[in-house]
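for the recovery benchmark. tokens below, seq after
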């Protein structure tokens, strides 16, 4: 499998980059432009959501041409058939808004890190028990920082990726609250709508620089990570 990588390596990449660019757009060409601008701006984790038209083809193209150190993954992965399709296309990691045991098991069997979505402590624990190296807290904006802080206090060993409704300006708050990394998305679309690829690249550069100032130092993110 070309997308295969160890869970530990994926967690390390999240801890190094600390920001995931979520590319979700109704136009495939615009999505391609946004993704490339994010890479040009210095973001090393690019998530192409399957709600984007021609998402698998876009993912394949980006994965084949990704610079050294850049990981291209698939988002909104909801069933086992989608897992197989995006892994074959070269996805290095998979993300979902939900925790489906069959989907997680398919990804684990394929050897590709899967990040299930969770909105409760029980769902977070389930995702880890199923073999997920990281759990996506979704929708993070609605759940709030206090939710993340409460989860971190009782589950410090679980690497968390908040996603949904987080702006670049809010990235330091979520990282400071204990997130291993943070996903940003809608703001990238807004930047593209207002200023094209240059605006996206500038926003991506700001996100990368901001995240780089907040290194993970206080959480044992590698404990219990499946290999």
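predicted aa per position
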């Amino acid at each position: 499998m070309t997308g295969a990588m160890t869970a530990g390596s994926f967690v390390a990449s999240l801890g190094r980059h600390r920001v995931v660019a979520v590319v979700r757009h109704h136009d495939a060409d615009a999505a391609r432009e946004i993704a490339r601008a994010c890479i040009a701006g210095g973001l090393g984790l690019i998530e192409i959501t399957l709600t984007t038209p021609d998402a698998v083809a876009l993912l394949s193209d980006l994965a084949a041409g990704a610079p050294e150190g850049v990981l291209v993954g698939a988002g909104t992965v909801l069933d086992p058939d989608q897992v197989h399709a995006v892994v074959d296309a070269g996805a290095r990691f998979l993300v979902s808004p939900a925790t489906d045991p069959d989907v997680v098991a398919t990804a684990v069997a394929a050897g590709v890190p899967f990040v299930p979505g969770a909105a409760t402590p029980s769902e977070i624990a389930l995702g880890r028990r199923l073999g997920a190296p990281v759990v996506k807290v979704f929708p993070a904006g609605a759940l709030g920082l206090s939710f993340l802080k409460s989860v971190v206090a009782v589950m410090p060993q679980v690497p968390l990726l908040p996603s949904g409704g987080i702006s670049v300006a809010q990235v330091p708050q979520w990282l400071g609250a204990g997130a291993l990394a943070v996903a940003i998305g809608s703001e990238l679309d807004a930047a593209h709508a207002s200023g094209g690829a240059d605006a996206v690249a500038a926003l991506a550069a700001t996100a990368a620089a901001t995240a780089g100032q907040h290194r993970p130092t206080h959480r044992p993110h590698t404990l219990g990570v499946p290999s």
